[in-house]
Design brief:
single chain; 282 residues; alpha/beta; Dna Topoisomerase Vi A Subunit, Chain: A, domain 2; 2 domains; 6-stranded mixed beta sheet; 3-stranded antiparallel beta sheet; elongated
Length: 282
Amino acid sequence: MRLPLGIAEKLLLLISGETIPASQLKHPVVDELLAEGILYKPGKLKSRIHLIDKQHLFLFLKNHFDIVDLEKYVFTLKKSQVIRSELIAVSSDSKLKAVRTFKGFLINSYSPVKARLNGEPIEILPVIGTFHFIYDFETFSPEPDVTIVGIENAENFRYIDRQAYLFPDIKPLFVSRYPQNQSKDLLTWLKMIPNKYLHFGDFDFAGLNIYFNEYKVHLGDRARFFIPDDIENILASKGNRRNYDNQSLHLEDERIDEPEVLYLIDLIHKYKKGLEQEVLLR
């Protein structure tokens, strides 16, 4: 059995000299403390619980929960980000609280990108065939003139050098939407930084749904959907009719404030085709 945070907080109040209504302090741990005479509850109805023996309470917490510092235990459990070594330090239990031990997201680049990580300057240029993984994303900040390009599909993310011709006018840093369990970290980071965001996904309704419902809604005017200049010719000649027949746009046109996207939607309806982004690999 573990000591719940709510009970631990109330025990701290008792240690400070307060009394607590019995109705607010119900738990098997409290029953045991009452039975051992460490806590006291006079009467049965509308009574308040008192702490009788502070030293015996400390000994009880040590013997039953390996808690040697109740205040530090409460502080650690209330932290939004905690590592397992901290949990072991306050209770000898690394599983005391659910902890994400692997966070962050993948990045890639075909040209040097300057950034800062944990206050230190870094240059991003992975060797072809490798990616960089940003773990401490909270302290990761590319230079302001870098455009963050979010890529939906793994193959496009792997072979970004074969798509450099698509981005001649920007300084791109590519980020991957996958693995999906990391995507919330990516979005959290995108909301923290001022850089422009360009979404490079499939040119079909599924791709547009991902862009608008997962990114645009949070990033607003900083976000744009990437559309190549010759999209009509590519869509007409290499588009896939199944992408059109099996998909629908879960968004009203009046919510779309990007003329280029409205143009793309018209083309998708005109040719009744969708286009996967892998077709742009050279």
